Each structure stands twice: as structure tokens, then as C-alpha cells.
Amino acid sequence: MTKDLEHQFVTELEHNQNIVHKVCTLYTNDRDAHNDLFQEITIQLWKAYPKFRGDSKFSTWMYRVALNTAITLYRKSKKSVPTLDYDSVNFKISADEYDPTEEQQLKLMYNALKELGDIDKALVFLYLEDKNYTEIAETLGITEVNARVKMNRIKNKLKTILNP
């Protein structure tokens, strides 16, 4: 690969690395697993980058690769050794704005999300990232109508999980 291609990739990855971190947080339970998944997603992105045609935004393509990698590894891990729960999720809230209620709500939400299926987690993640249904559908490889219907069902399921 050329140095230009390598430089473009590194620049795009640095600019969009929060996407990968959010996917890792959604599909892992501890810091080591998070770091391992981040590394694996980065490797998969690097391998696939020469084939990136630019038909979609880089971030959309990155979501797709990251989610597919996470889902694949998540499914493999379900067949092997379970991980320990990661209770000390660090959320970056400045000290003057700190409200323990908000952090507790975020932990409850992450725990509820972990009860969803693989595709449902990905759909909620993209929805919470303010992606429109067209972009969600494109990233997940489903129709826009299907994305809307699934999201409504997921909202109801989350309400049930969070308010038993």
C-alpha cells in the first residue's frame, strides 16, 4: 500500500475513532475486551480500506465494518468463555456537572442494551448516534421500513426491561 493510502486511513481513523470506541463499549464487558475488540476492528478496517470505494461516507462504512466485526466476535465469544461484568464504566462528565443519577441511568441503559440481540443493539446504537433511518438501513443492510419497525419494537422492549 502507498504512504498516501496509509496516511488517509490513519487520518480518517483518528477522526472517527469514537465510533469504534462506542461499538466496543456496547459489545464488551471489561477494559481488556474493549481494547482487544478495538484492535480487531482497526485491523479489519485496515484490511478492507483499499476496497472502500467512497460510495458512502467513511463514517457509514466504518460503522458497518465495526458492527460486523463486533457481532462476529460477540457470537464467537458466546460459544466460549463468558466475561465478567464491567461495572465501572467511565463516563466523561466534568466535575462541576457531575450528577451520579445520570451515570446510574447510563449504566442501566447499557445493561438493558446488553439484553438485546446483536442487530437490535447495532440499530439502537446508530439511532442514538442521530443517524437517520436511511443511513441506519444502509449500514445494517436492511430496508428503511424494516429499520423503523424494528426500532419501534426495540423501544417497547427497552421500556419493558427498564420499567418491569
TrEMBL record:
GO molecular function annotation: DNA binding; sigma factor activity
Keywords on record: DNA-directed RNA polymerase, Sigma factor, Transcription, Transcription regulation
Residue ranges occupied by any RNA polymerase sigma factor 70 region 4 type domain in the UniProt entry: 109-158
GO CC aspect terms: DNA-directed RNA polymerase complex
InterPro entries: RNA_pol_sigma-70-like, RNA_pol_sigma-70_dom, RNA_pol_sigma70_r2, RNA_pol_sigma70_r4_t2, RNA_pol_sigma_r2, RNA_pol_sigma_r3/r4-like, WH-like_DNA-bd_sf
GO biological process: DNA-templated transcription initiation
Superkingdom of this protein's organism: Bacteria
Annotated RNA polymerase sigma-70 region domain residues: 14-78
PANTHER family: RNA POLYMERASE ECF-TYPE SIGMA FACTO (PTHR43133), RNA POLYMERASE ECF-TYPE SIGMA FACTOR (PTHR43133:SF45)
Similarity remark: Belongs to the sigma-70 factor family. ECF subfamily.
Protein name stated in the entry: DNA-directed RNA polymerase sigma-70 factor
